[in-house]
Amino acid sequence: MDDDIEMDLWFEMTEAEQDTSLAAAEAQHLEWWDSMTPLQQYRSCRRSAVDGCMKWRQTILPAFPFLRDHLKQRQISMVKLRHWHSTGIYPGEA
What we know:
It is a single chain. The chain is an all-alpha fold. The protein has 2 domains: 1-35; 37-94. It is built from 4 helices and no strands. It has helices spanning 2-12, 15-35, 38-60, 68-87.
């Protein structure tokens, strides 16, 4: 129910108010992210990637085998995260 109320309030806002709200939320998120150590950032990204892989495997792939590409992209992101963790450089970030 709270989500419905929040969504109604969101749609009642002007575009400028929405932009301000989004900017504040983004600043709060970046402050949280920057406060973490590199190991904590790695663990957070890895957890998200593993969760995504498990969801694709368990729910979507049996019904839609053509979505294997999405799973493969998630797995590639996990390899990049491992590289980032071991070297401190995220692949593709030059």
